[in-house]
Design a protein that fits this description.
6-stranded antiparallel beta sheet; Cathepsin D, subunit A, domain 1; disordered N terminus; about 450 residues; mainly beta; 2 helices; single chain
Length: about 450
């Protein structure tokens, strides 16, 4: 998706975003003389996309996904409208399945994410809701024009932060547990125009070796379907869709049973695969390892050195994780996550009447006064005697701004369990059932 002058379309020459200039500690268009910027992540315990709040032309914040593979930053039509982004037709571009798509381009004069302010970028504009996932409104993608080769991208899922550091200023904090070297694929021809090279490393799926793209902008892992038998993948019917950076949807009717992967010595268990069909990748790329496959690790991408560094995740106190929201009520409330959570057993510890099941428990979530009037999402962990009950799912609780208290019902498996806040965010999902708030289960 190569940027080109619009000429007679009237917007004028597009501003080509350069990731870094030799000899500079600060990439072009980045604010000030800093060489390190920190971004808070939304939903870091979920193992999904790397989501961060972003302000466009002073409007927002919106949630954007970080994707070093996307050639350009992308916004959806609502962001373009809100930010008064002037748009015009761009060049045709190929989507994941090799179909040509008309691109729409818009000029953004300022992007703000975390402690970083970026001046003047050209974004691709896609349909409203193209990237929404799991009840979250995801309004765009921060692509390679920002997350370029001159930066080092570090993701700490435990603390819920991503850090961008100019390569010239970056020094590893400690030796990584695993260092994965990768090479760029060599796709030639028309399909290669405007796309980012795939980061290809040798990886094992159920003990068989394949050339796999390290996909840090996608969750699912993928393998070309003719290779499933060699990889000992057992398929099952599903009905889901995956979306590429052009907003094109590919319907998926098949996924594998959980598999074991290994790459550079790092391992992942329970990794499901879907068919890999990206026609913009070279034929000798067998598939992709998504974020879920590397869910047991924090990672650092060093594009200039063609390395992905992995470190096993480690427990972090909830207060340290929530501290990433260093402004606003979440930084000042008396209780973790700005709420008080109670689990009430209506039988008060007594067994149910003979022949009758236990009715379950009532969970009551009350907001701190200091956090009144704000959106609030909480991640709750079941604990008994100070030890997390790993067989129980984590819970996601959402409180809209006008809701100060939410009461919900949980099953009898929660009797005797304390619920503690392990994460909080001002960016909740949309409740699907109750307008006054909701409590949902989060699969581990």
């Amino acid at each position: 998706m190569r940027s080109s002058p619009l000429g007679p379309l009237g917007l004028g020459a597009l501003l080509v975003a350069t990731a870094a200039c030799p000899g500079r500690s600060t990439p072009s268009g980045f604010s000030g003389a800093n060489a390190r910027w920190e971004l808070p992540l939304v939903g870091p315990l979920e193992g999904g996309l790397l989501l961060t709040p972003v302000t466009i032309n002073g409007i927002g914040p919106y949630l954007f996904a970080l994707d070093p593979d996307a050639p350009h930053t992308v916004i959806d039509a609502q962001v373009a409208k809100d930010g008064k982004v002037v748009v015009a037709r761009g060049p045709m571009a190929y989507d994941e399945v090799g179909k040509k798509q008309q691109t729409i381009l818009g000029e953004i004069y300022q992007i703000e994410l975390g402690t970083l302010i970026i001046d003047r970028r050209t974004a691709h504009v896609v349909r409203l809701g193209a990237f929404d996932v799991g009840g979250r409104r995801v309004a765009g993608i921060i692509g390679h024009d920002i997350l370029g080769n001159g930066l080092v991208v570090s993701v700490d899922r435990d603390r819920g932060t991503a850090t961008l550091t100019a390569r010239s200023a970056w020094r590893p904090a400690a030796a990584p547990a695993f260092a994965i070297a990768y090479a760029d694929d060599k796709l030639q021809g028309e399909l290669a125009e405007g796309r980012r090279p795939r980061r290809v490393a040798q990886a094992q799926v159920n003990g068989e070796t394949f050339a796999m793209h390290l996909d840090l902008g996608g969750v699912a892992s993928q393998l070309r379907e003719p290779l499933w038998e060699r990889a000992k993948l057992v398929g099952r019917e599903v009905s889901v869709g995956v979306v590429d950076e052009l907003g094109s949807v590919r319907r998926i009717a098949k996924a594998s049973e959980p598999a074991r992967i290994s790459v550079g010595g790092a391992t992942g268990e329970g990794v499901a695969f879907i068919p890999y069909v990206d026609r913009r990748a070279a034929d000798d790329v067998d598939g992709a390892l998504g974020l879920a496959a590397l869910g047991a690790y924090n990672f650092t991408l060093v594009p200039a050195d063609r390395q992905l560094l992995l470190t096993p995740r480690a427990p972090v106190a909830a207060a340290a994780r929530i501290a990433r929201w260093d402004v606003g009520p979440l930084a000042r409330c008396p209780h973790a996550g700005c709420v008080t959570v109670r689990v009430i057993d209506p039988l008060q510890g007594k067994p149910p009447a003979e022949g009758k099941p236990h009715p379950g428990v009532v969970v009551s979530i009350t907001r701190d006064e200091r956090a009144g009037g704000m959106d609030l999402e909480l991640v709750l962990e079941g604990v008994v005697g100070g030890v997390a009950r790993s067989e129980l799912p984590r819970l996601i609780a959402n409180l809209p701004p006008n809701v100060d208290r939410h009461i919900d019902h949980l099953g009898p498996e929660w009797v005797g369990v304390e619920l503690v806040v392990v994460d909080a965010s001002p960016f909740p999902r949309v409740c699907q059932v109750k307008a006054g708030g909701c409590v949902d289960q989060l699969a581990r």
